[in-house]
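We were asked to recover a plausible sequence for a given structure. The inputs and outputs are reproduced exactly as logged, with field labels preserved.

PROBLEM: sequence recovery
POSITIONS: 269
GIVEN STRUCTURE:
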């Protein structure tokens, strides 16, 4: 027969387009680097800090969450990187299965979050109120709350008076703290044209009515601001999730189909 013998070497033959191969590798390599950073941060946070404060206001230790997610990402992207470079169908199928499962879980989480929006809101409110209680106990937690209040232009969970849950900002008559009935500086409205910033602008704000306090601080709670932000960026968040998942799925399908097609051609030759 004049056809090509099975198993005969052919230097010009390639299983799949190099463009598809290295694009798939590039996607996975980027996320592999991200997973390494997440694992490193998780290990550092776990070693250098105690998790008691974080566990008191959160359902899970953030350091452990970073470690678990980072390790899973590392394994997943490792399969994608090695599978694409070595053109290994087994590793690529493993990668595809994990990617599909993660996409389905994201979809289910989004649906459950929409259906049980009230319960999710109450849970987030409870977590934020606990975080307010431990505001002065953990500098990282304090920085996180301050960052959120500045970025979203809000104060407290539901309203600015939620800061009375904290022992230093509590409005009770027996509270000897100099921050009694105050709110953190991150709640304040800072005018850009002011040369000197008053860092004590939150002093005594809890004693004022909402309208009067709103002239000096962001009196609205962070829960409503967060919900409004999610609603405003819902399509953007969904687009980002699809934008990360679909290209890799498409490249993987092209890669796998090309591999099977060329394998079939080899068997017939």
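RECOVERED SEQUENCE:
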């Amino acid at each position: 027969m004049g056809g090509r013998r099975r198993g005969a070497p052919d230097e010009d033959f390639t299983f799949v387009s190099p463009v598809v191969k290295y694009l798939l590798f590039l996607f996975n390599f980027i996320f592999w680097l991200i997973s390494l950073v997440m694992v490193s941060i998780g290990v550092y946070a776990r070693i250098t800090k105690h998790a008691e404060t974080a566990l008191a206001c959160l359902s899970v230790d953030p350091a452990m969450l970073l470690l678990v997610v980072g390790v899973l990402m590392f394994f997943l992207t490792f399969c994608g990187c090695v599978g694409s470079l070595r053109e290994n169908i087994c590793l690529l199928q493993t990668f595809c299965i994990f990617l599909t499962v993660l996409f389905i879980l994201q979809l289910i989480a989004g649906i459950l979050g929409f259906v049980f929006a009230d319960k999710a809101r109450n849970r987030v409110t409870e977590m934020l109120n606990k975080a307010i209680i431990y505001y002065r106990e953990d500098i990282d937690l304090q920085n996180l709350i301050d960052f959120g209040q500045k970025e979203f232009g809000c104060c407290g969970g539901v309203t600015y008076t939620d800061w009375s849950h904290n022992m230093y900002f509590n409005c009770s008559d027996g509270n000897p703290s100099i921050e009694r009935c105050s709110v953190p500086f991150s709640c304040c409205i800072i005018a850009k044209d002011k040369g000197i910033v008053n860092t004590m602008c939150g002093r005594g704000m809890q004693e004022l009515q909402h309208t009067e306090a709103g002239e000096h601080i962001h009196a609205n709670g962070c829960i409503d601001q967060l919900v409004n932000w999610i609603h405003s960026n819902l399509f953007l968040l969904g687009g980002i999730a699809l934008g990360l998942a679909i290209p890799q799925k498409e490249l993987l399908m092209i890669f796998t189909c090309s591999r099977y097609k060329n394998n079939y051609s080899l068997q017939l030759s």
